């Protein structure tokens, strides 16, 4: 049997090896489909199957590359970067409403090769690139015969290495979704993601020293982190294949601009399917209609957060919004969509 | 369970599709362990219920601890 036949129905679980990754461990998914776009949630559910606690396959990097050569997997149609708490799950869910789209959200094993964690060995970029391409290919195994396009929504922190993704996939369309940083900040204060805590990332990724960041109050650290996230697209030499989006443009921009930017032309039925999916709150119990909480978050910001916003976030956000206005609509769709249809 | 014993057990199951399929479709841990122990015995692998449970627990733990550096 070929490696591809052996891995039919298996999905990549995690990386093995220290100090550098050496192999991938695979989990049997079989007839257990993804119930949401969050990849790690799918893995957690699959791990409840007794078989998966004992029988896991392993492939080396060389075998992974052989796997890629034996037969191509789904083409990567789009990468979604974001600042967190900005509608990125809504975007992923709306894309996933179309059966031909395979949407994978925030797979930790990509974050593992791309981001420098505090205290972890520093993987050279050339090795990160090799692993990144091999793992994206592995994630592109179609989950059903209907799947034609692969979209990956990354964890918010992944945008800190947007440069690496651009190198790995220079011809792949990408988008960066952001929101008024005050609202993101308040949301993170309310429910802090583990990646927004000091000690998760190597401070060099944020361009700051260990002493500056780790000895600062938590809100100051988070302000520096958010500033780095918002600045990431601005640090590229150009925004080729990129689309900057703001939370305020959702949901209409998803079918009006984002789908064509990602090379997906929609039938009227498909647009209705996306519009229906976009009505629902992506993070709540199924069936809950989405309502914006921007006003609420604006009101909840404490004086210190407002000061940090003015000092660290407003300048970069203003610059980002100027870039968004200057590049909108993106060239990728100008030849496809009459201007009057652009939202 | 040592790594070599686990590898032998895994490889045998991976090479026998019908056995693999049967084990994949067991939802209850007790039944899964009982059937796996039968396979191990047929391979002359000296494994106990505790061996399998400990290995499975460790595998689950490594997943929970994946964020640790």
Helix content class of chain B: over 70%
Total number of strands of chain A = 8
Low-confidence stretches of chain B: none
Distance linking N and C termini of chain B: 25 Å
Assembly type of the chains comes to heterodimer
Query: Averaging pLDDT over every residue of chain B, what do you get?
Result: 93
Q: What would you report as the Rg of chain B, rounded to the nearest angstrom? A: 13 Å
Strand coverage percent of chain A: 5-15%
Look at the structure and give the mean pLDDT of chain A.
Answer: 90
Task: Kindly describe this structure.
The complex is a heterodimer of chains A (343) and B (69). Chain A is an alpha/beta fold and 343 residues long. Chain A is built from 16 helices and 8 strands. In chain A, strand 1 and strand 2 form a beta hairpin. Chain A is globular, with a radius of gyration of 20 Å. The C terminus of chain A is likely disordered. Helix content of chain B is 74%, strand content 0%. Chain B is globular and about 40 Å long. Chain B starts with a helix and ends in a 5-residue tail after the last helix. At the A-B interface, helix 3 of A face helix 1, helix 2, helix 3 and helix 4 of B.
What's the gist of this structure?
The complex is a heterodimer of chains A (about 350) and B (about 70). With about 350 residues, chain A is of the alpha/beta class. Chain A is built from 16 helices and 8 strands.
Salient structural properties:
heterodimer, A: 343 residues, alpha/beta, five-stranded parallel beta sheet, three-stranded antiparallel beta sheet, 13% strand, globular, disordered C terminus, B: 69 residues, mainly alpha, 4 helices
Strand and helix layout:
The complex is a heterodimer of chains A (343) and B (69).
Chain A: H1 3-6, E1 10-16, E2 23-28, H2 39-46, H3 50-54, E3 57-60, H4 61-70, E4 76-82, H5 88-96, E5 101-105, H6 108-114, H7 125-139, E6 149-153, H8 162-168, E7 173-178, H9 181-190, H10 210-214, H11 218-231, E8 242-246, H12 252-261, H13 268-278, H14 294-300, H15 303-326, H16 331-334
Chain B: H1 3-15, H2 17-24, H3 29-42, H4 49-64
């Amino acid at each position: 049997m070929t490696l591809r036949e052996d891995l039919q129905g298996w999905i990549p679980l995690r990386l093995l090896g220290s100090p550098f990754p050496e192999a991938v461990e695979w989990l049997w998914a079989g007839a257990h489909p993804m119930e949401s776009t969050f990849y790690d949630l799918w893995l957690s559910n699959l791990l409840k199957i007794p078989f998966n606690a004992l029988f896991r396959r392993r492939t080396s990097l060389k075998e992974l590359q052989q796997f890629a050569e034996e037969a191509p997997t789904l083409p990567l149609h789009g990468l979604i970067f974001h600042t967190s708490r900005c509608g990125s799950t809504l975007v992923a869910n709306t894309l996933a409403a179309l059966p031909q789209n395979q949407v994978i959200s925030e797979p930790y094993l990509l974050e593992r090769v791309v981001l420098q964690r505090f205290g972890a060995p520093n993987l050279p970029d050339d090795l990160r690139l090799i692993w990144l391409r091999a793992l994206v290919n592995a994630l592109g195994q179609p989950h059903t015969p209907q799947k034609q396009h692969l979209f990956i929504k990354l964890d918010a922190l992944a945008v800190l290495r947007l440069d690496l993704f651009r190198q790995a996939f220079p011809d792949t369309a990408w988008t960066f979704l952001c929101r008024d940083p005050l609202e993101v900040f308040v949301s993170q204060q309310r429910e802090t993601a583990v990646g927004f805590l000091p000690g998760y990332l190597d401070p060099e990724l944020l361009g700051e020293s260990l002493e500056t960041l780790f000895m600062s109050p938590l809100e100051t650290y988070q302000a520096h982190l958010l500033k780095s996230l918002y600045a990431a697209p601005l640090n590229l030499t150009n925004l080729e294949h990129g689309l900057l989006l703001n939370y305020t443009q959702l949901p209409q921009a998803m079918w009006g601009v984002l789908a064509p930017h990602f090379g997906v032309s929609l039938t009227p039925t498909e647009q209705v399917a996306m519009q229906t999916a976009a009505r629902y709150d992506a993070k709540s119990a199924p069936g809950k209609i989405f309502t914006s909480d921007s006003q609420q978050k604006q009101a909840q910001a404490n004086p210190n957060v407002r000061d940090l916003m003015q000092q660290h976030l407003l300048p970069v956000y203003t610059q980002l919004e100027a870039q968004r206005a200057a590049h909108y609509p993106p060239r990728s769709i100008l030849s496809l969509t009459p201007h009057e249809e652009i939202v | 369970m040592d790594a070599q014993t686990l590898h032998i057990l895994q490889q045998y199951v991976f090479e026998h599709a019908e056995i693999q399929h049967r084990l994949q479709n067991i939802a209850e841990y007790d039944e899964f362990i009982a059937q796996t122990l039968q396979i191990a015995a047929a391979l002359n692998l000296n494994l106990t219920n505790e061996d399998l449970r400990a290995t499975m627990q460790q595998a689950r733990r490594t997943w929970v601890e994946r964020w640790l550096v």
